Amino acid sequence: MTSQELRRHRRLDRPRERVLQEAWDLLVEKGLADLSLSELGRRLDTSAGHLSYYFGSKNGLLLELLRWSEDELTENLRVVLESDDSAEDRLHGLCDLFFPRSAGDPRWLLWVELWPRVLREPTLRDAREELDAVWREALATLLGEMTDEDVAPLAQRMLALLDGLSVGLLIGEPGLTKDAAWEHVRALLPG
Predict the structure, then answer these.
(1) pTM
(2) Helix, strand, coil fractions of the chain, as percent rounded to 5
(3) What one-character-per-residue DSSP string does 46-71 give?
(4) N or C: which end of the chain has fewer CB within 10 A?
(5) How buried is residue 156: exposed, middle or buried, by Cβ count under 10 Å (0-12/13-18/19+)?
(6) Interval 47-101: pLDDT, tens
């Protein structure tokens, strides 16, 4: 068993993790439109009301599901950042983690669904900022190794570029590949 499979099985020992794994499987299988507390309750043999107690609403479920998927990425990001590779190679590793795995990547479907919702819900807005900060700080750290200039504006610009390129990759924009997206990022590097 791989470490990811072991972690998944360990997660399923806990009821909340089981709910999130089932929600993730439902998202992968049917898409975001059919991810409802009612359908999830049917799959888990429990009521939507019981799930509402834990998540509050579909927004709460989506947010917890996004945090759950981002936790694994954050672990992988830490490994990339702590490697002995050059700053540019680590930045490339960061981009590999950040970009969607493929068109229709469920993690990115969650992001796209939550972005417009943050306009109406302060809790979601705060959570989005917290999750984005991890990536922005990692970018700033790597960029800081490449230049002595203030890297905060460049990290913000680069994060916006990564988001935009990720949406293109998510929807399968013709001609856009992860390699091409990386070249767009490289074009912003200092020096």
Answers:
(1) 0.84
(2) 75, 0, 25
(3) S-HHHHHHHHSSHHHHHHHHHHHHHH
(4) C
(5) middle
(6) 888 888 888 888 888 889 989 999 989 999 999 999 999 999 999 999 999 999 9
